[in-house]
Amino acid sequence: MVNTTSSMMYSLSESIEDSPAPIYARVKQAICEKIESGEWKTNQRVPSESEMVKALGVSRMTVNRALRELTGEGILARQQGVGTFVAKPVAKKKAHSGLFEVHNIAEEIATRGHQHKAKLLEITKSKANMDEAMNLGVRTNHPIFRARILHLEDELPIQIEERVVNASLAPDYDKQDFQHNATYDYLMKVAPMTEGEHLVEAVIATVEECELLQIEIGEPCLQIKRRTWSNDQLVTTARLLSPGSRFQLFGHFGQ
């Protein structure tokens, strides 16, 4: 068993790519590749957290997050007091996003081993109307950016993002690289998020939105309305629209 675990860990360490993605995401991707290739088989026990920490030279928090998310996604299965195993294959899972966290969608797609692409549909600098001013907690005519972006996963549209940004807190928002979603990094740099809220609803997209998402008219969609704060200031409001057949939310909580 020791030799089997050692060989699994050596193979895993060799598969971890050197990329800008977070370490936990690269560990997740490497584990997924082992399972998808058949090298790690259904019901096979995977190395423990402590074994991975020692062999990979990463923190326990990194390994714990990778294994926890893979378990939540149904790729691994944990048995209390026994260990973690490769789960039985099920129908292809939808792309999902954390319910209690705000992530970079490009990073989420990368963790699934897929390619993210963004198309900037529109961006303007304007003055807030009454509704936008109320949502951002500013005065009417306050300077804002309005942006509309289409996100794709392996060339398949997965989300329409409509965002309003407080221009006084993020003055160079319109100069960012929307293609590679550098807007997330920019906003986290100039106005680090300290608080956020979600409102999740099932909706029917408009005809134009169905065309952008390449779905049939009337297909149910998942809509997330999100606001984020930096300290006591509202930075952005966003409406995120995804086909219900391609997207889901996942949350984990406990004491």
UniProtKB/TrEMBL annotation:
Annotated protein name in UniProt: Histidine utilization repressor
SUPFAM superfamilies in the record: Chorismate lyase-like, Winged helix' DNA-binding domain
Cross-referenced Pfam families: GntR, UTRA
Stretches of the chain forming a coiled coil according to its record: none
Entry-linked InterPro entries: Bact_HTH_transcr_reg, Chorismate_lyase_/UTRA_dom_sf, His_ut_repres, Tscrpt_reg_HTH_GntR, UTRA, WH-like_DNA-bd_sf, WH_DNA-bd_sf
Organism of provenance: Vibrio algarum
PROSITE patterns with a match to the protein in the record: HTH_GNTR
Domain HTH gntR-type stretches: 21-89
Name of the encoding gene: hutC
Keywords: DNA-binding, Transcription, Transcription regulation
